[in-house]
Every structure is written in C-alpha cells, then in structure tokens.
Amino acid sequence: MAFKRTIRLGGEEVQIPAQITPKTLLAAGAVILFLIFLASSLYSVGPDEQAVVQRFGKFVRTTEPGLHMKLPLGIETATRVKVKYVFKEEFGFRTLRAGVRTVYSAREYQDESLMLTGDLNLAVVEWIIQYRIKDARHFLFNVRNPEETLRTITESVVRSVVGDRSVSEVLTTGRMEIDQEIEQSLQTVLDEYESGIRVGTVKLQDVNPPEIVKPAFNDVNEAKQEKERIINQAWESYNQAVPLAEGEAKKQIESAEGYFLNRINRARGDAANYISVWDAYRQSRDVTRRRLYLETMNRILPKIGKKYILDENQQNVLPFLPLEKGGLR
Q1: What is the chain's percent helix, strand, coil content, to nearest 5?
Q2: What is the rounded distance in angstroms from the CA atom of residue 37 to the CA atom of residue 16?
Q3: How far apart are CA 183 and CA 242, in angstroms?
Q4: 8-state DSSP, 164
Q5: Which residues contact 303 (CB under 8 A, 6 or more apart)?
Q6: Are strands 197-208 and 122-133 parallel, antiparallel or unpaired?
Q7: Would the pTM of this model clear 0.85, i.e. be above it?
Q8: pLDDT digit string (tens) for 223-277?
Q9: Domains and their CATH numbers in the chain
C-alpha cells in the first residue's frame, strides 16, 4: 500500500511516495489497542462522588474519590453517584430560575398541594425536601426510579400527617411539629425500602386555604383573633384585680390577728398583775393597802388644780390668804 507525503525542499512543498510495511501496521495497531485498553481501564471519581463498579452487570465494589482502574472493554462498568451533593425536590410549585429575584412557575400544582385536613377543611400545602444519597449501591439497585419513588412516598406521608391535624395547626401553630413528624416518618419508610436516601430537611413553604374560600377563611381568622384579644384583656384584668383583692384580704387578716394577739397579751398581763397584787396583799394587807393608797394618790393629785386641806376638827375656816399667791395648793 502506498500513499504520498509532503515535505519542504528549498521553500517549496514536494510530494513523494511513502511505503507502509506490515511491521508499521502492526505497531500502529498495537498502539491503538493499548490506548483503547488504557481508556477503558481508567476512570476517575469526583470529590463529592462514589463509583459503583459492576462486572457483567453484577455489583462488585464501591470506590471512593480519586483515579481507579477496572477491567477494560466493558467487562466492568463504573457508575458515578453524587453522595455529598444535597438534592432538592419541590412540591406544589416549581422554581424556574433561582437568584436574587427567584422566578417561580405560574402553573398551579394542586394535584400535589391540595389536601384535606383532620377537621375536614381544605388547604393548599407547598413544601420542599432536601436529601442526600447515603448508600450508592442501595440507591442504584434497590429502588427503580428512586427520584420518582421518593416524590410518591413524600406526598403520601405529607397527606397522612396533614390529615391528622386541624387546619389551624397546618396554617399557623403546628408547622414546626408537622415538619419534624414528616421528616421522621419519611425517613422510616425510605429505610424500610433500603433506598439509600437520607432526608435532611422537610419544610412547609407556604400553606393557604383555596382561593374560593379565602374570604370566609379570613373572616373566621379575624373572629378568632378578636376572641383571643378579648380573652387576653379579661385575663389581664383578672391578673390585676385578683392579686390586689388577695393582698387586701391578707392585710385585713394580719391586722385582725395582730389585734387578737394584742388583746390576749394585754389581758394576760392585767391578770398577772392583778394576781401579783393579790398575792402581795395577802402577805401584808396593811402595808399593801397603804402602798396602793399612796400610789393612787400620787397619780391623782398632780391632775388636780387647786387643793384645799381642811382639818376635820377645825370649827372655822383658817385665813390662808392670799390663796392665789403662795397659799397651799
């Protein structure tokens, strides 16, 4: 076999015939086979990936990030799975473009989001889940179409949890508890299926009543808020009046108890004083009688203004003059 090759002589291109020998063809074939062998034997695994290696379709091993070798020519195949990437699934809405101003799809997904609550009310529930692949082998082989299976299981679990709650809990007070319950229940089902998926976050994004009943629902909410406001005002008045009344009652009780103890103690003191006087009088009657007389007069005489001392044997009034100036008083 011959072909022409081009060379430069003196600045001009000249074509000369070239001859390929069997040895040259053999060498070229060997090089090509080696390149094919090398290309089909080497494979690399990214830092956030694991590779599942199959030999004739049967699982053989799982390899970590880095450069690895496998049997060439399709004997072994390597399927890369992102085990450190956080995936997200949206329900009831779709994000068209994320960024500073996120753009959402205008389409309504009420086949996913319209649900019946435990008190037989309707609610439009939008939520997201975030998950990671914890076992690449289980993820690839145990469940057919794992993403679609995950969505189906998630929707079933959310409907079950929402169906056990009242519409008020779903809309307002119980959303955090509902998120946790959905996450636990969903992980339990995925583990039973050995899906190789670990749920990271479940979050109710937006919960609203259907558009057709929104006005009536808003009226009910306003009535409930007014009810709560009146109840809170009543409790506020109660908390102000009752402690004040209790304090006043306690004050009156303590005052009465104090008066009671004072009267008891005074009566006991008077009784003890009387008994002591009586005991002293029994032991020395004349002296005690005189002492009591003198003590009584000592208390009475200073309170008397003018004093006139008369001798019971005197027949006439003694001329103590002037009585106002230095006389006996």
Answers
A1: 50, 25, 25
A2: 35
A3: 46
A4: T
A5: none
A6: antiparallel
A7: no
A8: 888 998 999 999 999 999 988 898 899 999 999 999 999 999 999 998 888 888 7
A9: 2-82 (no CATH), 87-209 (3.30.479.30)
